[in-house]
C-alpha cells in the first residue's frame, strides 16, 4: 500500500498535481484530497502515466542488432537465421535486456514473439518466462511457430519452386504450445502464453486453426505477423487467391484477442474486416522503415475504428527496444502520407494508443491501460527535470515528440515497484551488461550464404 | 598534447584498436606503434569517430518544443511566432541547451540559423556566440534574416493577397550581418558567422545577392532553407515562373560554400544544379516528418553526387537536438521510397555523411570530418559498454541504427576536451537545467490567433 504524492497527471484540458493511492496492486484512489496511506512517494516534478505495451518484439534478436545487412525482410530473415547460434543462456540474457530497455522507455508489458531453439522449445519458453519473472515486467510470451520452411515465404512468381518440408509436424508444434500453456500461463502473476503462428508465409491453415482452438480452450491471446511486405501480399494471392486478411477471417483466426504485427499492405476491405472482428494492429514503424517494408496506413486504421498499439519489433530490425522512439516515429511518420494535418496523431492520442491500445490488443483493457480507480497499478513516473524534457511546456508533448533520455524515474507492475530513481531494482543491470559484453564480439563484415542463395530469385520475383 | 590509447577505429573491412596522438589541436598520428606522448587517455571498449555536424537548427525554438500543434510548416510558423516572447536570457540558455544536446549525441559543430530579437539583433548574435564559446562547441552562427512579412510565404493561388511591408529594409539587414561578421567571425577560434536568408518564401533577390556579396567579401558560408514544403514549391512558381533552385542559381547564390536545409521538393533538373554548383543538402528528416513536409529524395542526391549532411532542425519541429536520432531516421526513412535495397544507406555511409558531409557543407573538409593525420581534433569517444550498445556486434551499426543512451564518453573540439566521462566539463549542466526549469511553465492548450487567421486561406490554396 502506498501513495504517490504531487504527481502531475493529464486532465482533459490541462495537467493537475494529485495523489494516487495504490492498494493490493490496484489504483484505489486519485484525488488531491486523499489522505496519504502507506509509504509516501514524492512525485514532485514528475509525470504519472499508465505503463505502455511493447506489443511486438523478438527478444533474442538482440544478439544481432547493429550488424544485419540493409536488406528487405525476406533476405534479412535468411541472414538472421544463418547467424543465430542461440543457446539457452543467450535467450535468458536477451530477454532480460529486452525487459530492461522496454521498462526504461515507459513499457510495463512486453509481447515476446519468441524464437524457439529446435529441440529445446519448452526450455526456451521456460527461460524467457524466468527472465521476465525476475525483472517483474508483465509478459506475453508468444512462441513463434511455423510448419513450413523459410523458402516458402517468398512468392514463386512464374517459377517452379519446391520447399523442404518443415522438420516438425503441425500437431507436434501445437502440442508444445499446449504444454507451455499448462506449465507457464498464469495471468494473475503477470505471465501469459499467447498462440502465435509466424504468419501466413510460413504456416498452414491447420496451424492457424489449431492455435485458434487452443486460444478458445484456454482463453489465450492470438498473435501473428501480417502483411509486413509486398512479397507477402503477392504470396497471399498465390496461396489463397484472396488477401491474407480475407483468408484469416475465413479460417476463424481473427477476434478481439488477436493482435497482428505490421499490417503494412492491406486493402480497404481488409481494414473493414479488422474493424468488425475487433482485431488489433501492432504498429512497428522502425522495423518497417529499416527493412523498407513501407509505412503502415495507421491513419486509415484509426479512421476505420481499428485498435492500434505500438511495438519495437525485434532488435535486429530496429535496432533497439526503446518504446518511446517507436511511439514518436510511429506517430509522426504518417504526416507525410496524408497532407491534411487534421488527421495527424497528437501526442495525447499516441499515449492512449501505447497504453490503452496496447491493453486492448491483449484483452486486458478492463484492468490495464489507463489511470482509473480499480485498474491494476502498472504505472510509470517520468522525471520532468531531465534536460531532454526541458524547458517545461506540455509534458506529454515533450515525452512523445522529444528524445527523452534517462526519464523513467519509477515503474510499477501489479503495484510492485521494479524501477526506482531510474534504476531497475529487481535485477543487477551492471551485471547484465558484463554478461552481454562477455558473450559477444565486435565484428564488421559477414556474408549470409542463404541470403546469397535466395537473392537472385527474390530480385526476379520482385522485379528488381 | 595527449594520446588516446586503445581506441577502436573503423578500418575498411574491420575495426582495430590503435593509438591516436593529438598535438596543437590536430591529429598528429594514428598507429598502434606510436609512443604515448603527453596525457594518456584510456579508450578501452570505446569507439573513436570524427565529430558530427548538426548542420541546421534554430536554438531558441527549444523554448517551444513539445507544445507546438500538429501543423504543416506555414501554420506552425504562425503559431511559433505568436508564442515567441524571446529575451536575451532565453537566447543564451537555449543556445547552451542546443550545444549540450548536440555534443552529447556526437556533434562537435552546430549551425544555428538564429532567430533575431527585433531591435536587439547584434545583441542576440553576441549572446549565442557567448554561449557557444562557453561550451566550446564549434559554431556557425547564421542569423536568420528576411525582408518580407510572414503572410508572403503562403502561395496566393487565385486569390489577391497583399502583405504588410517588412519592418526593416534590405540594406539595414545586410548592414547588421556585416557588423556581426566584423565583430564575431573568427574561424580559428571556432566561431563563424554565415549569411543565411530565411528562404525564397520571405526574401527578395536583393537580399540573396547582398548575402552572396558578403560571402565573397569575407569568405563566409551561405545557408538557407530550400523547398521544405509543397506550398514553397507552388510559391516559387508564382514568384519566379521557374523552380526556386533555378532562380537561386541564376542570381548566384549557389556555390561550394552553400548549404540548403530540407530540399524536399526538387526536380531532377534542380538536383543536377545542386550537383554542379557543389551545393550541400542538409537533411532534417525529423522535422520533415513532424511537419508533414515530405521525405527528401536523399537517395537521388547521393546518386547524383550531391553532398548531404544531417541536421536536427529547431527543437520545436523535432522536438529534440539528438543528432544520432536524426542520423538514424534520416538513414532508414528512405528505404520505403526506393524498393531496391542496394541503394539504401549503410551505417558506415551515414557516419561519413554526418562527419565529412557536414564538414564539406561548411567548407572545412580539408581540416575536419575524418580521422586523418593533420586534421583538427574534433573527436568523439563512444562508450561501447552502454546497455544500448550491447551485445557487441558492429559498433557503428549499433550507434547509427540503435537508440544509444548515455554513450558519449568524451568529446574534443580543436583538441580541447569539453566532454569527459559523459559530462560536459565547460559549463554546469545541472545549473542549466535549473535555469530552464525556472524560466518555464507546464501548459497544455494554447491557440494561435495568427494560425487561425491564415488557416482558411492555407486550406483553400493547398486544396484541403
TrEMBL record, chains A, B:
CDD domains: ATZ_TRZ_like. The keyword Nucleotide-binding does not apply. Residues 48-417 form the Amidohydrolase-related domain. Pfam families: Amidohydro_1. Keywords: Hydrolase. It comes from the Bacteria. One of its GO terms (molecular function) is hydrolase activity, acting on carbon-nitrogen (but not peptide) bonds. This is Hydroxyatrazine ethylaminohydrolase. It comes from Dulcicalothrix desertica PCC 7102.
Amino acid at each position: 500500500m502506498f501513495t504517490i504524492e504531487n504527481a502531475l497527471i493529464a486532465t482533459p484540458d490541462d495537467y493537475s498535481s494529485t495523489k494516487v493511492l495504490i492498494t493490493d496492486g490496484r489504483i484505489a484512489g486519485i484525488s488531491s484530497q486523499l489522505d496519504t496511506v502507506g509509504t509516501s512517494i514524492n512525485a514532485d516534478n514528475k509525470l504519472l502515466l499508465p505503463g505502455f505495451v511493447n506489443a511486438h518484439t523478438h527478444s533474442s534478436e538482440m544478439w544481432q542488432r547493429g550488424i544485419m545487412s540493409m536488406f528487405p525482410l525476406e533476405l534479412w530473415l535468411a541472414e538472421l537465421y544463418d547467424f543465430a547460434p542461440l543457446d539457452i543462456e543467450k535467450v535468458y540474457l536477451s530477454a532480460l535486456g529486452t525487459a530492461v530497455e522496454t521498462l526504461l522507455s515507459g513499457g510495463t508489458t512486453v509481447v515476446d514473439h519468441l524464437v524457439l531453439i529446435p529441440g529445446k522449445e519448452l526450455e526456451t519458453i521456460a527461460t524467457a518466462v524466468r527472465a521476465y519473472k525476475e525483472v517483474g515486467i508483465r509478459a506475453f510470451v508468444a512462441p513463434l511457430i511455423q510448419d513450413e520452411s523459410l523458402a516458402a515465404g517468398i512468392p514463386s512468381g512464374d517459377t517452379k519452386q519446391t520447399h523442404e518440408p518443415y522438420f516438425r509436424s503441425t500437431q507436434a508444434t501445437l502440442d508444445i504450445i499446449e504444454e507451455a500453456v499448462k506449465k507457464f500461463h498464469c495471468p494473475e502473476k503477470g505471465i501469459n502464453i499467447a498462440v502465435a503462428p509466424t504468419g501466413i508465409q510460413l504456416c498452414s491453415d491447420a496451424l492457424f486453426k489449431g492455435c485458434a482452438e487452443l486460444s478458445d480452450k484456454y482463453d489465450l491471446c492470438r498473435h501473428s505477423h501480417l502483411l509486413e511486405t509486398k512479397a507477402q501480399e503477392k504470396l497471399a494471392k498465390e496461396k489463397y487467391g484472396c488477401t491474407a486478411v480475407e483468408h484469416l477471417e475465413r479460417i476463424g483466426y481473427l477476434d478481439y484477442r488477436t493482435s497482428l504485427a505490421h499490417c503494412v499492405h492491406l486493402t480497404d476491405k481488409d481494414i473493414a474486416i479488422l474493424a468488425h472482428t475487433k482485431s488489433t494492429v501492432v504498429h512497428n514503424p522502425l522495423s518497417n522503415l529499416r527493412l523498407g517494408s513501407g509505412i503502415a496506413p495507421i491513419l486509415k486504421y484509426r479512421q476505420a475504428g481499428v485498435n492500434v498499439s505500438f511495438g519495437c519489433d525485434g532488435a535486429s530490425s530496429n535496432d533497439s527496444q526503446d518504446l518511446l522512439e517507436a511511439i514518436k516515429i510511429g506517430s509522426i511518420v504518417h504526416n507525410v502520407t496524408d497532407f491534411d494535418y487534421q488527421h495527424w496523431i497528437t501526442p495525447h492520442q499516441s499515449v492512449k494508443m501505447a497504453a490503452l491500445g496496447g491493453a486492448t490488443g491483449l484483452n486486458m483493457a478492463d484492468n490495464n491501460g489507463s489511470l482509473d480507480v480499480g485498474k491494476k497499478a502498472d504505472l510509470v513516473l517520468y522525471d520532468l527535470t531531465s534536460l531532454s524534457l526541458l524547458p517545461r511546456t506540455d509534458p506529454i508533448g515533450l515525452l512523445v515528440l522529444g528524445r527523452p533520455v534517462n526519464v523513467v524515474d519509477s515503474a510499477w507492475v501489479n503495484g510492485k515497484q521494479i524501477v526506482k530513481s531510474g534504476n531497475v531494482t529487481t535485477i543487477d543491470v551492471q551485471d547484465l551488461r558484463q554478461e552481454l559484453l562477455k558473450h559477444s564480439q565486435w565484428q564488421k563484415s559477414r556474408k549470409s550464404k542463404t541470403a546469397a542463395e535466395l537473392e537472385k530469385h527474390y530480385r526476379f520475383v520482385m522485379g528488381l
